[in-house]
Amino acid sequence: MYNFVFGVGFFANQVVDKLMEFGVRVDGMLKLKEFYMPIFIEPNKYVNTYCVEDLKKLDPNLTNIIIAQKPIIMGDTISYLKNRGFKNVFIVDEEMQRVNIHTLKEFNCYLYPVNMEKPFLNYLEMNIVDNCNLNCKGCAHFSNIFDNGYVSLDSFTRDLIMLSSKFELYYFRLLGGEPLLHPNIIELVKIARKILKNTKIIIVTNGLLINKLNNDVLKAFAENNITICISVYKPTLNILDNIISKLEYFGINYILNDDYMASKKSIESFSTRLTASQNNNAFESSRKCLGRFCRFLRDGKISKCYYPLLIDVLNRKMGTNFVLSAEDYVEIKNITDGWLAIEQLSKPIPFCNYCSEDEFEFNWEGYHKNDLDVYQYILKK
Fold first, then answer.
1. How much is the pTM?
2. How far apart are CA 261 and CA 243, in angstroms?
3. Domain ranges of the chain
4. Measured on CA atoms in the order 189, 157, 291, 137, is the torsion positive or negative?
5. How much is the pLDDT for 381?
6. Taking the alpha carbons of 287, 125, 338, 108 in that order, is the dihedral positive or negative?
7. Alpha carbons 192 and 361: distance in angstroms, whole number
8. What CATH fold (topology level) applies to the domain 121-376?
């Protein structure tokens, strides 16, 4: 069998080095030729890097593919491998980066075998609470202008049951708003874990409420193997050491700013591509946007990013006129072929015409509740 590591960054190099340390032959590192997002390619001194499209003679039945990429960007990789007929596909859990691994047996504990027979959804996000306690200026989820609201346990259960019947879901992020404001957070994580037994479940929070949580909530996170992803804003940074101590005391896995290797630095800026007109180039906008991978679940629908399913609040509160079409999302109940649904979610959608190829970055500011300046969210022409 041939062994290839799919990935070209720091994490992929770690995986290559570990495998070779344990006596596993690695025949090369792989990347997709047409993948646009900026990638910092770090050559490995032991193996060569190839564009997988160039390895036409690679026999899928005699090749192990070990994916060492962030979950949000591995969707194109999975689709390519599926279309080429690869079946021996494994994902390396990023958590491996923070663990001392001494044997191949220990390394294998961080390998996730991908069932290529069932439609594989690598990444999905969902707002479980719409409002927030921090209310950042220009919040991409419009949390600072949303009325207080949260997903009901019934609709949450309904959507996850439908979802699990259509897809194998690898990485599921519960966010908002501030998800820890949900009044039934214990029941919610229990439901998620019961239905999504093998899925990596992450709660994305600004962390300001963690030290105030009831111990039963923290125990539920630990017992249901929930990872806490802390978005480190300036107010969070002031109490971050206390937050981490609390999580470690309860044995809860955590990451900072969606990166297992992130240092204790605060988020200094936000950005947007959204404009008020549909006169942009959807293909180019989508190609250059990391948000194109942020598949988003709301009320039984999945869109390729959060904007289509949240934009109604901007229309209501700001008087904007963003138009949503039936092609901007898929309804889970209507999916008959999960692979086709994933393909549809990977392509540019009509709503992508609202986004510019260029990204505008602005300084982060908190505490902008009900700030109705529309130019926090859309680019000025």
1. 0.95
2. 17
3. 2-117, 121-376
4. negative
5. 62
6. positive
7. 35
8. TIM Barrel (3.20.20)
